[in-house]
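Summary for the steering committee. The consortium agreed at its last meeting that each partner would contribute one worked example illustrating the joint modelling workflow. Our contribution is presented below. We chose a case with several input lines so that the handling of multiple components could be demonstrated. No manual editing was applied between input and output; the record is shown as generated.
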Amino acid sequence: MNMNGKSATYIHLQEKARQLDASDALSQFRDLFLFPQQNGKNILYFTGNSLGLQPKQTREYILQELNDWATYAVEGHFCAKRPWFAYHEFLTEKMAKVLGALPKEVIMMNQLTSNLHFLMVSFYHPKGKKRKILMEFPAFPSDIYAVQSQIKFHGGHPDEDLIMVKSEREDYIIEEEKILSTIEQHGNDLALVLIGGVNYLSGQVFDLAKITAAVHKAGAICGWDLAHAAGNIELHLHDWDVDFAVWCSYKYLNSGPGSVGGAFIHERYLDNIDLPIFAGWWGTDKKERFRMKPVFEPMRTAERWQVSNAPILSMAACLASLNVFETATMPALVKKSKQLTAFLEEVINSINGTFQKDIFKIITPKKSRGAQLSVICHLSHPRIFFETLLQNAVMVDWREPNVIRLAPVPLYNSFEDIYKLGIVVEEILPQFI
Ligand SMILES: *Cc1c(COP(=O)(O)O)cnc(C)c1O
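What follows is the complete predicted structure of the assembly.
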């Protein structure tokens, strides 16, 4: 039964979407974003977990820097509306709020994988037997490559020193108990644990506080990759005692392709100037920086880890976006996110109901999820189904061999978007079953 037939379920879902949109306190934020178009109409966009949409004001923020560059040239470091010399500082407090961190624990710099390397220089110190790194599997390949290469850099062997806690299940879910017991078992030889706070593939959210505490009990360091967590789920990195974290800003943080990444280093390390780092001039005491002394004066903030001067154009995009987050606030976003995801689940279940088949199996755990549902498609040609969605102006994300990831993002997705997605899916589905 498709929309033209107006089944009772559909009338109910349409009505529900309208009501939820009408009572949504964040509904106007959608107008602050640019949606991709197909045949002059907005695409239904559900891939904000991969590349967040462009805030309309981003252009203005970048133009400001282009204009200041044209007007002041090198003097822009000090005379620009937002002086480049200290540009990263405009981002710190806003970013810290999104993460539940103290501003001095946060630095926006480089990109995710580079930050991971820089922080492993400080936090991975294999000594004697205590040299192993534990990760989840599936983990994002870039993180695995980074960890393998760090192990080799320290003279170790990934086959021996890398522990992967693997999901043995069809749905890629990793039981948290398995992670906790593996950590406990390896108390004698574990140096570092690095896990994605939200698994990129399954959308599973891990209990950062609980895992971090277990890692500390095992006498190891706990780092988190927050690529899919920052700007998505509620975080309290400081209170959870996380040692370090890294993230990118182009997914939920809407700062544009390849934009500046971030790093968190817990306050308790900031006065420890003996911690090894790979240093650069942007990490030395600001007041001394331009005296060009040959001696590095470590800053007592996360800024110590900065090596280079800031990439202003991508930081301008990041600032434009963080201003939107500051207005919306994370608690409000998380509240709406839960409602959106629950509604998406309802629509997917109703499609299964219409066809009286479990065509779509949601693998993301109900109790631990953010703004993403990963769905296994039980179809003979799932990839062509995915491509047909795109031809019908629905953008979702595809992972081999049969997983579709859908991210309803509270800043710019509406309940009606989800309802409309359901209609398109029901219309094209009969060709595939
Ligand atoms: C997106 C993502 C990355 C990407 O790394 P870059 O260095 O930004 O290219 C790395 N790790 C995870 C878990 C990701 O989701």
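The chain has 13 helices and 17 strands. Residues 111-113, 140, 142-143, 196, 200, 225, 227-228, 248, 261 surround pyridoxal-5'-phosphate (CB under 6 Å).
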